[in-house]
Amino acid sequence: MGALLALTSALTYGIVDFAGGLLSRRVPHAAVTLLGQIGGLLLAAGAALLLPADAVAGTDLLWGALSGVGSATAMRFLNRGLSHGAMSVVVPVSAVTGVALSVLCGVLLLGDRPGALAWAGIAVTGPALWWVSGGGTRLGREATDGLLAGVGVAVQYVALGQADPVSGLWPVAAGRVAAVLVPGLLRLPAGPTAQALLIGAGAALGLVLYLLAAQRQMLAVAVVLASLYPALPVVLGLVVLHEHVSPRQTAGLLGAALATVLLTVG
């Protein structure tokens, strides 16, 4: 059941990233980010009220708030990257970075013990990211945004995974509050409100599904399965938007996929 929830989270995030990327190319990415966080707050609060918690401790809300800071960081840089860069570069870079950092945090801080295949996946991550970003001596702007978004993804996943399951969905709601209040997101630029709110609600739904998955299995496994989401926006970017990918970037995308599989089974 946990694996199914994590994979459903991945599908939800894939749809959200593609829709958010398209919207960020038409309107200011800051508007998409902030309105999205507000939409996520509305959905998360409603879900938390519908699914009562057994007990909610202050530490659970603090973990949720820290997760929200990671979410806001991830969405800000992801939307900025998608507003000017190829989905087939920005999304995989953010996802693989988030997975690798989450697994490392699980090992170094939480006592997780991945197998040899997972370590092989971590080793593949570096070269894969380098190739996806173009293989130059300096990271391009879109790859840099992807890396920064990946750091936010790791903070989001690891922090939320520390909340006690008895707290229900309130840590997610606390995270949405923090995401709205993060410095730099307080100004509300003009933009199509309804679309951005729906995209944000979808992102919150993906996070709710991830939290339910993380409560049922090892954090590293939940993170990796949920992070399979790049497949959908990458394919849609290539097929629908006709994005160009160089042979070196193709090798990097294959390496990123291999890294994710190794981390999953390891």
Blueprint of the fold:
Layout: H1 2-24, H2 29-50, H3 58-84, H4 87-109, H5 116-132, H6 141-160, H7 170-181, H8 193-214, H9 219-226, H10 231-239, H11 247-265
Helix pairs in contact: 1-3, 1-8, 1-9, 1-10, 2-3, 2-7, 2-8, 3-4, 3-6, 3-7, 4-5, 4-6, 4-9, 4-10, 4-11, 5-11, 9-11
N-to-C span: 19 Å
Rg for CA atoms: 17 Å
Can you summarize the main beta sheet?
Answer: none
For the secondary structure, the number of strands is 0
* Number of spatially distinct domains: 1
SSE string: HHHHHHHHHHH
Please name the defining characteristics of this protein.
266 residues, mainly alpha, 76% helix
Descriptive report:
The chain is mainly α and 266 residues long. The protein has one domain (2-265). 76% of the residues lie in helices and 0% in strands. It contains 11 helices and no strands. The protein has helices at residues 2-24, 29-50, 58-84, 87-109, 116-132, 141-160, 170-181, 193-214, 219-226, 231-239, 247-265. Helix 1 (2-24) runs antiparallel to helix 8 (193-214). The longest helix is centred in the N-terminal third of the chain and has 27 residues, at 58-84. The two termini are 19 Å apart. The mean pLDDT is 81.
Concise account of the structure shown:
This protein is mostly helical and 266 residues long.
